[in-house]
Backbone:
Protein backbone atom coordinates (compact mmCIF):
# COMPACT_ATOMS: atom_id res chain seq x y z
CA UNK A 1 0.00 0.00 0.00
CA UNK A 2 1.30 3.44 -0.77
CA UNK A 3 2.59 5.16 2.36
CA UNK A 4 1.01 8.33 1.05
CA UNK A 5 -2.52 6.99 1.64
CA UNK A 6 -1.68 6.05 5.23
CA UNK A 7 -0.36 9.58 5.85
CA UNK A 8 -3.46 11.14 4.25
CA UNK A 9 -5.60 9.02 6.57
CA UNK A 10 -3.58 10.15 9.58
CA UNK A 11 -3.60 13.79 8.51
CA UNK A 12 -7.32 14.12 7.85
CA UNK A 13 -8.45 12.01 10.81
CA UNK A 14 -6.16 14.08 13.07
CA UNK A 15 -7.40 17.37 11.65
CA UNK A 16 -11.00 16.22 12.04
CA UNK A 17 -10.51 15.03 15.63
CA UNK A 18 -8.79 18.30 16.52
CA UNK A 19 -11.59 20.29 14.88
CA UNK A 20 -14.21 18.37 16.88
CA UNK A 21 -12.28 18.94 20.11
CA UNK A 22 -12.20 22.68 19.41
CA UNK A 23 -15.96 22.75 18.79
CA UNK A 24 -16.52 20.73 21.98
CA UNK A 25 -14.58 23.28 24.04
CA UNK A 26 -16.55 26.13 22.48
CA UNK A 27 -19.87 24.37 23.05
CA UNK A 28 -19.06 23.64 26.69
CA UNK A 29 -18.08 27.29 27.16
CA UNK A 30 -21.49 28.35 25.85
CA UNK A 31 -23.33 26.42 28.57
CA UNK A 32 -23.03 29.41 30.92
CA UNK A 33 -24.82 31.75 28.51
CA UNK A 34 -28.46 32.30 27.68
CA UNK A 35 -30.55 31.40 24.67
CA UNK A 36 -29.80 34.48 22.57
CA UNK A 37 -26.01 34.20 22.91
CA UNK A 38 -26.09 30.45 22.28
CA UNK A 39 -28.25 30.89 19.18
CA UNK A 40 -26.09 33.66 17.75
CA UNK A 41 -22.86 31.72 18.25
CA UNK A 42 -24.39 28.54 16.78
CA UNK A 43 -25.49 30.44 13.70
CA UNK A 44 -21.96 31.81 13.27
CA UNK A 45 -20.61 28.25 13.68
CA UNK A 46 -23.03 26.94 11.06
CA UNK A 47 -21.84 29.53 8.54
CA UNK A 48 -18.67 27.59 7.64
CA UNK A 49 -17.91 24.85 10.15
CA UNK A 50 -20.11 22.28 8.39
CA UNK A 51 -17.92 22.78 5.33
CA UNK A 52 -14.76 22.29 7.38
CA UNK A 53 -16.22 19.12 8.85
CA UNK A 54 -16.97 17.78 5.36
CA UNK A 55 -13.56 18.56 3.89
CA UNK A 56 -11.83 16.77 6.77
CA UNK A 57 -14.18 13.85 7.54
CA UNK A 58 -14.81 12.67 3.98
CA UNK A 59 -11.10 12.36 3.06
CA UNK A 60 -10.47 10.70 6.45
CA UNK A 61 -13.18 8.11 5.75
CA UNK A 62 -12.14 7.42 2.16
CA UNK A 63 -8.40 7.20 2.83
CA UNK A 64 -8.94 5.05 5.93
CA UNK A 65 -11.15 2.69 3.92
CA UNK A 66 -8.35 2.36 1.35
CA UNK A 67 -5.89 1.60 4.16
CA UNK A 68 -8.33 -1.02 5.52
CA UNK A 69 -8.57 -2.74 2.14
CA UNK A 70 -4.80 -2.89 1.72
CA UNK A 71 -4.06 -4.01 5.29
CA UNK A 72 -6.73 -6.72 5.19
CA UNK A 73 -5.37 -8.05 1.91
CA UNK A 74 -1.81 -8.00 3.24
CA UNK A 75 -2.97 -9.48 6.54
CA UNK A 76 -0.84 -6.90 8.31
CA UNK A 77 -0.58 -6.93 12.08
CA UNK A 78 -2.10 -3.48 12.16
CA UNK A 79 -5.28 -4.49 10.35
CA UNK A 80 -7.51 -4.59 13.44
CA UNK A 81 -6.43 -1.14 14.56
CA UNK A 82 -7.09 0.24 11.09
CA UNK A 83 -10.45 -1.52 10.92
CA UNK A 84 -11.36 -0.14 14.37
CA UNK A 85 -10.41 3.36 13.20
CA UNK A 86 -12.65 3.02 10.15
CA UNK A 87 -15.54 1.68 12.25
CA UNK A 88 -15.18 4.63 14.64
CA UNK A 89 -15.20 7.08 11.74
CA UNK A 90 -18.39 5.42 10.49
CA UNK A 91 -19.90 5.98 13.97
CA UNK A 92 -18.92 9.65 13.66
CA UNK A 93 -20.49 9.89 10.22
CA UNK A 94 -23.70 8.12 11.29
CA UNK A 95 -24.06 10.25 14.43
CA UNK A 96 -23.52 13.37 12.37
CA UNK A 97 -26.17 12.38 9.82
CA UNK A 98 -28.71 11.10 12.35
CA UNK A 99 -28.44 13.75 15.07
CA UNK A 100 -26.17 16.71 14.46
CA UNK A 101 -27.07 17.71 10.89
CA UNK A 102 -30.84 17.73 11.44
CA UNK A 103 -30.39 19.89 14.54
CA UNK A 104 -28.00 22.17 12.62
CA UNK A 105 -30.68 22.64 9.98
CA UNK A 106 -33.25 23.59 12.61
CA UNK A 107 -30.88 25.93 14.45
CA UNK A 108 -30.01 27.78 11.24
CA UNK A 109 -33.62 29.01 11.18
CA UNK A 110 -33.80 30.07 14.85
CA UNK A 111 -34.29 33.72 15.66
CA UNK A 112 -31.60 35.20 17.89
CA UNK A 113 -34.20 37.49 19.50
CA UNK A 114 -36.69 34.69 20.15
CA UNK A 115 -35.07 31.23 20.27
CA UNK A 116 -37.48 28.32 20.75
CA UNK A 117 -38.57 27.57 24.31
CA UNK A 118 -36.90 24.13 24.19
CA UNK A 119 -33.54 25.55 23.03
CA UNK A 120 -31.68 24.14 26.05
CA UNK A 121 -32.88 20.57 25.50
CA UNK A 122 -32.02 20.81 21.78
CA UNK A 123 -28.57 22.16 22.74
CA UNK A 124 -28.07 19.31 25.20
CA UNK A 125 -29.09 16.70 22.62
CA UNK A 126 -26.69 18.17 20.05
CA UNK A 127 -23.85 18.39 22.58
CA UNK A 128 -24.24 14.77 23.75
CA UNK A 129 -24.13 13.58 20.14
CA UNK A 130 -21.16 15.85 19.50
CA UNK A 131 -19.33 14.46 22.54
CA UNK A 132 -19.93 10.91 21.25
CA UNK A 133 -18.57 11.72 17.83
CA UNK A 134 -15.62 13.63 19.31
CA UNK A 135 -14.61 10.65 21.47
CA UNK A 136 -15.02 8.32 18.47
CA UNK A 137 -12.93 10.61 16.24
CA UNK A 138 -10.13 10.91 18.82
CA UNK A 139 -10.12 7.12 19.31
CA UNK A 140 -10.05 6.62 15.52
CA UNK A 141 -7.05 8.92 15.23
CA UNK A 142 -5.35 7.12 18.12
CA UNK A 143 -6.00 3.76 16.44
CA UNK A 144 -4.44 5.01 13.22
CA UNK A 145 -1.41 6.33 15.10
CA UNK A 146 -1.10 2.97 16.87
CA UNK A 147 -1.39 1.11 13.57
CA UNK A 148 1.30 3.29 12.03
CA UNK A 149 3.63 2.71 14.98
CA UNK A 150 2.99 -1.05 14.78
CA UNK A 151 3.59 -1.03 11.03
CA UNK A 152 6.82 0.95 11.43
CA UNK A 153 8.05 -1.37 14.19
CA UNK A 154 7.28 -4.41 12.05
CA UNK A 155 9.20 -2.98 9.10
CA UNK A 156 12.21 -2.01 11.21
CA UNK A 157 12.49 -5.29 13.10
CA UNK A 158 10.97 -7.64 10.58
CA UNK A 159 8.92 -9.03 13.47
CA UNK A 160 5.17 -8.73 13.77
CA UNK A 161 3.41 -7.11 16.70
CA UNK A 162 2.14 -10.49 17.89
CA UNK A 163 5.68 -11.83 18.16
CA UNK A 164 6.79 -8.71 20.00
CA UNK A 165 3.91 -8.97 22.46
CA UNK A 166 4.56 -12.68 22.93
CA UNK A 167 8.26 -12.11 23.60
CA UNK A 168 7.37 -9.41 26.11
CA UNK A 169 4.95 -11.77 27.88
CA UNK A 170 1.94 -9.58 27.04
CA UNK A 171 -1.24 -11.23 25.80
Residues:
Amino acid sequence: MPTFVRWVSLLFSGLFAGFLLGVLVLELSLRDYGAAVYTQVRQVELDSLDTLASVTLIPALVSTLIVVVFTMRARGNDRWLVLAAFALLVVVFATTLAVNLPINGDQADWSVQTPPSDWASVRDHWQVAHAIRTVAAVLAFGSLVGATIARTAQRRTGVGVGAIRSAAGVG
